[in-house]
Design a protein that fits this description.
The chain is an alpha/beta fold and about 250 residues long. The chain is built from seven helices and 15 strands. The longest helix is centred in the N-terminal third of the chain and has 12 residues.
Amino acid sequence: MSKPHSIAIVGAGIGGLAVAALLQRAGHEVQIYEQARRFERVGAGIQTTPNAVKVLRRLGVEDRLKRVAYRSESRLSREWDTGEVTSELKLGEEVERRFGAPFLYLQRAELHAAIESTVPPEIVQFGKKLVGLDRNAREVTLAFADGSRERADAVIGADGVHSVVREALLGPEKPRFTGRVAYRSIFPAARLGATRVNPLHTKWWGPDRHVVIYYVTAARDQIYFVTSVPESAEWMTRESWSAKGDLEELRKA
């Protein structure tokens, strides 16, 4: 192997942690810089396709996640008013046999925690909000909001939709609002009382909106629900996985 590189990864989400684990295994010196003060259980439901599961297999966390994940035998599309099935995608043993890995439904926090377990905690630095990059022919200098600076041979940006790394490379940008808003939640299945949700991942299609619902645990005790609706975004705050909502403000809107 050639001389190992020092690599700075900005962002300790799913992508940042996964690439850090793999690069470290390849012999590189890796540091992760995360703006949050600590990891928190944030996010909602997440679907992990066979290709993604193969990466998780390489990280050594596939079995851990298979124990807690839900597996739907198929994915249905239904009409909103009649319940008519308009399409069905098989996801069970057929998918695993064809692609060599299962299709898993998870709570994002479970996936994040599993990948986090593959990374030595000492390479993750919290409270490091990137504010700028300075590049030359030999290295990259990272500047943080706390006044500190770090150097690396290369930088990988895994810092989300408002990526400082991407702006440094491509210039300022602004996400384009599509005119649609997604409301999502994970809640205990027990809250439905005697009502039982169909065990198959189901997407209900309406004329201008849709609803998706599926289990995210092997025990079927947690349900993920998300709906996409046309709506103005004037009342909304900046995108965030962890910002606390205010029900009173929502009611006023």
